[in-house]
Amino acid sequence: MTQEVPAERNFADRLARIRRAIAENAAMAGRDPAAVTLVAVSKQQPEERIAAALEAGQRVFGENRVQEAETRWAARREAYPDLRLHLIGPLQSNKAKDAVALFDVIETVDRPKLVEALAASCKSFEKTPRFLVQVNTGEEPQKAGVIPEELPALLACCAANGLAIEGLMCIPPLDEDPALHFALLADTAKRHGLKSLSMGMSEDFDTAVRFGATSVRVGSALFGERAPRQTAAIEGDG
Ligand SMILES: *Cc1c(COP(=O)(O)O)cnc(C)c1O
Question: Do residues 72 and 42 make contact, with C-beta atoms less than 8 angstroms apart?
């Protein structure tokens, strides 16, 4: 996906523009803008941009790798007690413990083995993160997330393991109208009595807000383009 370089030179201006867009789209849908959390996706971004984001008052960040997030954020917890970290990438069961220790919200619960590992990890910590289930709304074979048909069984598995699920997350297929997927996710959450909806990225967060997103995950539109990764590590353990 090609991303345009954000027009504004500084983070604070881009942040203000995106907050304004969130507020406008929430208003269009008759929603309270305060009900939408802006998650700044900081993966693969250089330190100086993270510093600028913190300087501008941003406190909610999304990362897609446990190790990378640990390196970047663990030492900052004390300086920023109101920091909130979201895991938005696939999680291997053997990293469940590290993820529970570091993150405030884990958005990518998607299979029974991971549910069990997370439940066990929560037992050994005082703090329990908030959890969302990632739904593969486009049923793309290469993508993480539970397919819609298997969601009820996974939610039952979460309940059986005492893992409280607060909502759903999705990443629509690149070549499809995201609105269809946002509508599907919103409808699915409603049917299951789940309140939180993590949907919408740089290109479509405005649409997601109109469809009921309670959090949007915005990376490049806030920070600028990401540097490519050095290594192509394999993620997910099925
Ligand atoms: C990288 C990423 C984002 C941010 O993408 P942008 O297009 O840069 O806003 C959002 N959600 C997930 C799950 C991601 O991995």
Answer: yes
